[in-house]
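Reopening this ticket.

The earlier resolution said the output was attached, but the attachment link was broken on my side. Pasting everything inline this time so it's all in one place.
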Amino acid sequence: MTRVLAVANQKGGVGKTTTTVNLAAALALAGLEVLVVDLDPQGNASTALGLDHHSGTPSTYEVLTQDLPLEEIVQSCPEGEGRLWAAPATIDLAGAEIELVSLVAREGRLDRAIQAYVEHHREVRGRDLDFVIIDCPPSLGLLTLNAFVAARELLLPIQCEYYALEGVSQLLATVDLVRRHLNPRLEVGAVLLTMYDGRTRLSAQVVQEVRGHFGDRVLPTVIPRSVRLSEAPSYGQTILAYDPTSSGALAYVDAARELVGTAHSDRAPG
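Inline output:
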């Protein structure tokens, strides 16, 4: 079964895009077939994966607002050894929030597009796509809502800094609303701690607090604060290509392995 994950946190700067692209690359290098869907108008995931996403490039904007099939915009990523693809985002997506308001079944447009693409992938490749990972914008608007309706699991990055859990209750309330009214299969699949600084007491306290709140949903691996992680996207690369022996790369490889192991029966997509 294809696992569909939304990487979301309405706080900016918590490592959503970094987590999306590096987990996707790690999963692909481990032999799994992965599609990244960039739903952020900034297009940072598209940049990090080396995709063309200038204004006018067919993108998730046309998928959501004009029913363009995903297979017509998906690009093969330079990394991933032929097992990593991505649907790019352009700045045009910034207007989609307004345009979606008047469209029929506006919350389910991405879900239908992804389901159709999964079938297309199976026909073309002769095997199932293993993961679809959706990079959400830092908000709880219609773009993120489309991701929550399409996803079966929420992957929640939380930074090891002050106010780490601030706003998380609002996010979880939105997930609960979506589960009750639009997508009963949506669950918090995993929590990933990012920007960990082992030199500070604060990081250790945040880890303890988040583990106390979410229990075994928190992946054992924590992602360290790393200059190399922030440098990699400017070269159109994930950390696994830019510096595969760095602490950030090794941490994301471990986190990807742990994420694969979270496919328990109570969380498996329907």
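Reporter confirms the inline version is readable. Confidence is low (pLDDT under 50) at residues 264-270. Residues 3-260 form a domain with the Rossmann fold fold (CATH 3.40.50.300).
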